Amino acid sequence: MKGWIEGFQASIDFIEQNLLQELNIEEIAGKAALSPFYYQRIFGALCAMTVGEYIRARRMTTAAQELACSDSKVIDIAMKYGYDSPDSFAKAFQRFHGITPTQARESGAKLRSFAPLHIKITLEGGNMLDYRIVEKAPFTVVGIKKRFDAETSYSEIPKFWGEWMKDVKGMKGTFGVCADMDGKTFDYWIADLYEPWKDIPEGCTTYQIPGGLWALFSCKGPLPESMQEWLPALQGYELAGNYSLELYMPPAQDPADTLSYIAIPLKKL
Question: 224 preceded by cis ω (within 30°)?
């Protein structure tokens, strides 16, 4: 576990060292030896925010410190922190701090401060991560898909499910499939197992899932919260492929007992 924690901290240190530069998710994720897609999912689970939100919070913190402690012009500070105009900087600054850049220079101005993250994992009570390694042959799913931005997917995908539930088109919604991930965007499918002898529902298409090794993590509790809190920490394997699966079981009478799974493709080291 120590190795991936150090790698993840290295990625955060890289962000901190390059706050004034243009940052891209591919380079940040590379510092943790993860694909951009998996990096953003793990970052969200560990830090309860997106990578973009973290970068903006750190930039607003350091920009406020510079405003309060220097005579630099607002326009110069705005340009320094990547804003095209003083107006766009002022709007972002006010959303974060609750006051304008000009007010930040007044004596006694209250400013928010967001400190750099430091990853620290504490193990308590002997809790075990419930997972198993399985090997699956290729199979095909059928469903509807929508393109999502990786940074906002945590909040937008539940809305997609909400829209689908209003018109399920004869589907069960057995799978949630993330596919064709390029680090910034990906396709998300609400799908069922494809049965060739049945007609494809209107508006749906098929997608083939490659065969291979999978890590199957169980998630117990109300959705979507239980499904979005996971952390792959496996030894002897590394993440593979640009896709992952969510498997939904029938809802339990008590939402706390609802069982679902996340399946992540692996390959042996």
Answer: yes
Q: Which residues contact 181 (CB under 8 A, 6 or more apart)?
A: 35, 36, 37, 150, 242, 243
Q: Which of 5, 244, 39, 33 is nearest to 122 (CA)?
A: 5
pLDDT in tens, 239-265: 777 788 888 877 666 666 677 888 888
Q: What mean pLDDT do residues 109-120 have?
A: 81
Per-residue confidence (pLDDT) for residue 125, from 0 to 100: 43
Nearest partner of 29 among 18, 40, 13, 45, judged by Cα? 40
Beta strands in 69-184 (DSSP E): 131-136, 139-149, 175-179
Assign 145 a pLDDT band (cuts: 50, 70, 90): very high
- Reference 243, options 196, 189, 200, 192; nearest CA is 189
Q: What whole-number percentage of the chain has pLDDT above 70?
A: 82
1.10.10.10, 1.10.10.60, 3.40.190.10, 1.10.132.30: which CATH number matches 2-105?
1.10.10.60
Q: Does 3.40.50.620 match the CATH number of domain 131-268? A: no
